[in-house]
Every structure is written in structure tokens, then in C-alpha cells.
Design goal:
Blueprint (H helix, E strand, L loop, with lengths): L9 H14 L25 H14 L10 H17 L6 E5 L2 H16 L5 E5 L4 H9 L3 E5 L11 H7 L4 E7 L11 H10 L3 E6 L6 H6 L16 E6 L12 E5 L2 H10 L12 H38 L5 E2 L8 E4 L3 E2 L1 H9 L5 E3 L6 E4 L9 H12 L3 E2 L18
The structure holds pyridoxal-5'-phosphate (PLP).
The site of pyridoxal-5'-phosphate has 12 residues, from helix 4.
Cofactor: pyridoxal 5'-phosphate
InterPro entries: GrpII_AminoAcid_Decarb (IPR050477), PyrdxlP-dep_de-COase (IPR002129), PyrdxlP-dep_Trfase (IPR015424), PyrdxlP-dep_Trfase_major (IPR015421), PyrdxlP-dep_Trfase_small (IPR015422)
Pfam families: Pyridoxal_deC
Length: 417
């Protein structure tokens, strides 16, 4: 067909599609140091990378017309397999849950379930200052008071369990802790928080959006036996969110929300019928894409992917430490690296990196700007050029507090790509 009913011709359609693809910067994927999606690629350590990604895309495409209702038989089986597999690895004897659209929805569904179980209209939720902004968002949506517990002085990634306990109010319905914090990569003291939750009869949700598909593998293969306990092995943990479209390498949108047992999922379904999810109709494509990734990688594959991501992170960390004036924030247990400076204003540096084509997340904390990178296998071969550009760009940095940063550079959004 050369012309469609709208009058748009096939050539014009393709030209526009090509343009929109370029605007989205898909071809620059290797220079994207903070991406989510099916970007698993072949590297010397992951010889099957491209093949697994292609099979995941194939499964997505074959289920693209499907949903989770009438034709949902296959997708629901796939979802149960993914939840059962990860839930088992996370230490639940009878895991139950679903594939969500990602970390925000998973956090929402968990806390709505907690609120339903508490049988309250309003109430409060206690979480450390390092919690993701989706926690504030869900509090606004569900008329809950966010009780944010500040980090101990000078240690943004740390959490004082005693301060969490002190923040609990009579109307508190849940505590939220994080395994793989945005943007420190730290793991909250969940064993201690679990005891507190149990002592106070409170629901404890763990936001493992970033950590959920990397921490289990780093621990189980012995890479880091010092990862503090954070999953269902901690008795008080009721639910865990873990994003397939982050370290799970799956096509977005895909996350998992896993409850400790089917009774908790049943409560989620009561408040959010019929699946426990925010949405009604769900696309089967993302579920199929995620299922393919999980099925083809398994524990061995995810372990190799996790080790590759950590090797890239370690290269970056070592390189950044050699650059005068720059530091890496301590405490990361995963492939999340926050680059900042105690002496330099990095705003011109951040701009220069962007001008040179690097994609990363900028953050206003620590002020005035910090650079967050989350290396994954698709960044293979990019750490050296990134570090070279960073070293060059640091020459443009200004002394911290010199006040000569032009006004238009003052505004740095935390997700300013
Ligand atoms: C710790 C944490 N929780 C939740 C989210 C939200 O995930 P999503 O964007 O998939 O909704 C993110 C996203 O970066 C995150 O880092």
C-alpha cells in the first residue's frame, strides 16, 4: 500500500518513524548510562546476549495482540512462572504476585494492600529519606501522610533503625524500606526494620525496583556475601517490588510485585480486582517479553549479567577516583554509582557530558548536582571513553559556592536527561 486512508504515504510514514527513532536516541544505546529495557547485548562474558534479547523481543511480538482477560491464559501462566521463580529465590515458601508496569505501580499496589488490611481511611507511612519519589506520589494518591525519616548527619545512604521506630505513629499503616536505593544503590537495614515492623504489627514493603534482579545473584554466587538480609528471609517483610525492566533486562513496562503468601495477594485483589494491579486490561506483550528473559537466562544467566554490570561499575568507580576533585558516594551494593564532588560545582561538567552525547541521570542531591550512572552490559566498551570525557569536562568545573554559574544552569531537575 503506497497511501493510507489518512492520505499519509508509506515513504512519508517511514521517514517520520525514522526521525522519531533518532529523536529517541535509540541508535546511541551504548552511550546511555542509565537505561531501562531489553538492552542485554553480547559481550565476551555474555556470548548469548543478543540471542536472548532477540528471543525476548520475539515473545513480546507474538503476544502483542494479547491481554490478560479473555486471551490471557498464556500470559497468566507466564506471570505465575516469573513470580514463582523470583519469589522462591527471595526466600518465600509460597510466593504470590503479579507482573506490574514497574516500580511505581508495584509500590502503589503494596501500600494500597497494607491500607486495606489496616482497614483505615487515612493514615501514615514511614520510610527513610532515601525512598524513591514514587513513595511520595502514592501517599498523595491514597491520602496517606509520608513520615520521612532523615538520614544520619553526613551519611545520605544510611538509615538509623531507631529513628524509624521513633517515627511510627498510632495511625501508621506501613513501613517501606529499599534494597537498591535511588541513587545511592544502598540496602536499608531491613532485618532491623523487619523486627520493628513485627513489634508494632505493621506491614513492611521492600522497594527492590533496582536491587531485586541483581542482589540475589550477587549474594548467591558469593560475589558479595556481606549484602545485608533484605528479602523474605527477614520475617517481617510482607511484599517486595523488583523491576524486570531495570536489572531484569526485560522490555518495558514490566515489574514484579511479590507477596509473601497467597493471602496477601488475595487482599490486594480485594482492593484492586481482579489482579491486584492498578490497571484493568494489561498487555500480554511485556509479560511475554519478561517471561522469555527469565526463562532463557535463569539463575546462571542473571548471575553472569549481574557480574558484568558490576565489573563495568567497578571500572567506572576506579576511574572516577583517579580524577582530582571527584568522589563516588559510598554504600552502593549494586550497579548504581553516584558521582559528586565536595569541592567543585559540577553543573558545567554535567552539561559538557550531555553535549558530548552521554545519557545519564542528574540529581540535585548532593547539591548542586550529582551524576548518576547505572552501567549495564550494553555499556560494554564505554567506560574508558566516558571517563576520558569526564576527565576533560572536570576542567570546566567551578569552585563549589563560587556563585558564578549562569542563572540558566541553576535549575537542575533530578531526572534532567
Ligand atoms: C528505588 C526505585 N523505586 C521505584 C522506582 C520507580 O520505577 P518505575 O519508573 O518503573 O515506575 C524507581 C525508578 O527508578 C526506583 O529507582
Amino acid at each position: 500500500m503506497s497511501t493510507f486512508p489518512s492520505g499519509v504515504g508509506l515513504d512519508a510514514f517511514h521517514r517520520e518513524l525514522d526521525r522519531l527513532e533518532l529523536v529517541s536516541r535509540f541508535p546511541e544505546m551504548p552511550r546511555n548510562m542509565f537505561d531501562e529495557g531489553p538492552h542485554l547485548v553480547t559481550t565476551p562474558e555474555l556470548p548469548w546476549g543478543d540471542e536472548v534479547r532477540e528471543r525476548s523481543i520475539e515473545a513480546y511480538r507474538r503476544f502483542i495482540h494479547g491481554e490478560t482477560w479473555i486471551t490471557g491464559g498464556g500470559a497468566r501462566e507466564m506471570e505465575a512462572q516469573v513470580v514463582g521463580w523470583l519469589g522462591g529465590l527471595l526466600g518465600a515458601a509460597e510466593p504470590a504476585g503479579f507482573v506490574s508496569s514497574g516500580g511505581s505501580e508495584s509500590n502503589m499496589c503494596a501500600i494500597l494492600t497494607a491500607k486495606h488490611l489496616a482497614g483505615r481511611k487515612g493514615g501514615s507511612v514511614v520510610f527513610p529519606d532515601n525512598g524513591h519519589y514514587s513513595l511520595h506520589k502514592l501517599c498523595r494518591m491514597f491520602d496517606l501522610d509520608p513520615v520521612v525519616v532523615p538520614a544520619p548527619e553526613g551519611a545520605l545512604h544510611l538509615v538509623d533503625p531507631a529513628a524509624i521506630e521513633a517515627a511510627i505513629r498510632p495511625d501508621t499503616i506501613a513501613i517501606i524500606a529499599t534494597a537498591g536505593t535511588w541513587a545511592y544503590g544502598s540496602v536499608d537495614p531491613i532485618a532491623e526494620i523487619g523486627e520493628i515492623a513485627q513489634r508494632h504489627g505493621l506491614y513492611l514493603h521492600v522497594d527492590g525496583a533496582f536491587g531485586g534482579y541483581i542482589l540475589p545473584f550477587l549474594e548467591r554466587c558469593g560475589y558479595d556475601p556481606t549484602i545485608p538480609p533484605w528479602d523474605f528471609r527477614v520475617p517481617g517483610v510482607c511484599s517486595i517490588s523488583a523491576d524486570l525492566h531495570k536489572n531484569g533486562m526485560a522490555p518495558p513496562p514490566a515489574g514484579t510485585l511479590i507477596f509473601r503468601d497467597p493471602e496477601l495477594l488475595a487482599a490486594a485483589k480485594e482492593i484492586c480486582p481482579p489482579n491486584g494491579t492498578m490497571s484493568g486490561t494489561r498487555g500480554a506483550g511485556p509479560i511475554a517479553g519478561a517471561w522469555a528473559m527469565v526463562t532463557l537466562l535463569g539463575e546462571a544467566g542473571y548471575t553472569a549479567v549481574s557480574l558484568k554490570s558490576m565489573a563495568l561499575r567497578d571500572e567506572l568507580v576506579a576511574g572516577v577516583r583517579e580524577i582530582d576533585g571527584l568522589s563516588v558516594h559510598p554504600g552502593s551494593r549494586i550497579n548504581m554509582t553516584l558521582i559528586h564532588s565536595g569541592t567543585l560545582d559540577l553543573r558545567p561538567v554535567a552539561e559538557e557530558l550531555r553535549a558530548r552525547g552521554w545519557m545519564y541521570a542528574a540529581r540535585a542531591v548532593p547539591a548542586p548536582v550529582s551524576i548518576v550512572v547505572v552501567p549495564m552490559p550494553h555499556n560494554d566498551g564505554q567506560t574508558a571513553p566516558f571517563l576520558a570525557d569526564l576527565r576533560d569536562a572536570v576542567g570546566l568545573a567551578l569552585p563549589l559556592g563560587s556563585g558564578v554559574v549562569p542563572a540558566e544552569r541553576e535549575k537542575v531537575s533530578s531526572y534532567g536527561f
